[in-house]
Every structure is written in structure tokens, then in C-alpha cells.
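Researcher: We're teaching a course module on how sequence relates to structure. For the next exercise, students receive a sequence and then see the predicted structure as C-alpha cells, so they can try to spot secondary structure elements on their own. Here is the exercise chain.
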Amino acid sequence: MDDHQTPIRVVVKKKKGHGGHHGGAWKVAYADFVTAMMALFIVLWIVGQSATVKQAISAYFKDPGVFESGRGGNILHGSRGSAPVPTSNISAQIETLKAEAKKLEEAIKGNSDLEKFKDRIEITVTKEGLRIELLENSAGLFFDVGSSKPKPDTIKLLKIVGKEVGQLPNKVMIEGYTDARPYVNPDYTNWELSSDRANTARRILEENGIRKDQVSQVRGFADRNLKHPDKPLDFGNRRVSILVATDIKEHVSAVPGPPAAAPQKDSITPQAPQVATDEAKPK
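Model: And here is the predicted structure for the students to work with:
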């Protein structure tokens, strides 16, 4: 190299990386924040829902598959603001109906006018659904003796039932039963009496919360399904039964009432007095 030549300088510029606020770490933090807020809003929404909605959500987390297409319904599906009962999951339906049974019991206990009914109302939950039975006594507790006319406190009771059950999507079946005493009037028998009482209950329920399309059946069984088969004349055989049914297709064709007892051929002897007492009293 000549002493007079200018040396060549090579300048290498290094590309500086992004630092500080120019990085992507903030995106992760923001995503975590949004997720936390969504979880918070979901929890707040659940806390503000009714017991039936909470039961349905609980059922989903226990068995999410029940809500898959073709197997169940939408968790928000319902009518008149009601919560759903998963149609294919009997366990979930039963849990929902148990919660409803508890609400009914508390509502009835909280009404001092219904105190006299406490030992004559049976509320049970089975696979067939929530059954509410009004069991008569010798004096005619719910209806006038031998009549389908309801007592004033019976109407109050049915108003409570209608208000609660009307919030559910379940179908309702109403049944009437009598004891084995023969009705003295040949033109008005236990068949008419049991049917009329069930129909009276239906009208009151529909006037106080139950939707008209919610009632699927109204039937009178007379003395054909005794609650106490060994005591055919027992007053407890006279009853009106309200079944809030689980969504099982068999209920459409099967008798939703208690299992049919054996024919009561010997329950009324030829010497039985044909007098107008208790349920045998003419309308």
C-alpha cells in the first residue's frame, strides 16, 4: 500500500432490538386480564340466577355431554324466564325438582293459613317427577264432603303451587282419587267426583301461574288406585295429585299415578250401608 493512499474504513451497523414498551409481553398480560374479567362476570351472572338455573349449570359441569347436539337442550332455553331441565339427564331433572320441592315446602310453611295442611300434604320427588298430593280427612279438608267445591284455603294453597310450578318447563298431570265408598247418587259416581276435583284443581292452577299448554293430562281414577289398598275406606285414599313430570316418553302412555293395586273385589261387602256419608254424600 502506498503511504499516500487513504485507508478504507468499513462501518458495520448493528440492528438494535426492541426494548421496553416496544416488546410483546404486554399482550400476554392483557389477555390474562380479559380472561379474569370474563370469569368474574360469569360468576356474578351465576350468583344472580335462580336455583333452577344454578342446578342446570351444575348438571352441565357434572356431565357436559348431556348438552351436546341431539342429547339435551340449551342451558338458557326455557319459557317465561324459567330455567331448563336437561331433557336427557334424569339425575339433573330430579335435582332441579328437589330444589323446587324445597321451595314449595318453605312457601307452605311460611303461610299461617295453611298450617292445618302440614300433615295432609305429601311432596315427593322420584324418577317420574315431583308429586304433590293433597290427602283428605274425614271432615273434608280440601274440598266440601262429596263435592268438587274447594275450600278457601285450598285455593290459597293451589295459588302457591301454580306460581312455583308455572316457572318450570315441565309438563303437569293432575289426578283425582276417591276411597272405595260407593256414591249413593246413581247419576254421580266416584268417577265423576274424582274427575271433577282434578279439573277444579286444574282451573285454579291455570288461573295462578301454570300455562294452559303446560297441563298435559287431567284424569279421575275413582277408587281404582287406592293409596292404601289394605284400607279401601281410609280417608287418605281421597286425594288430588299434581305431578310435575320429568321428560320421559313413557309417561305419555303409562299411568303416572301410584302402581295399580289388585282389584278390590272384597273391599265393599254386600252388607255395606248405602248411606250418604262422607264421600258417599250426593253432590
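Model: If you want an answer key for the exercise: The domain at 89-260+272-280 is CATH 3.30.1330.60 (60s Ribosomal Protein L30; Chain: A;). The longest helix spans residues 25-47.
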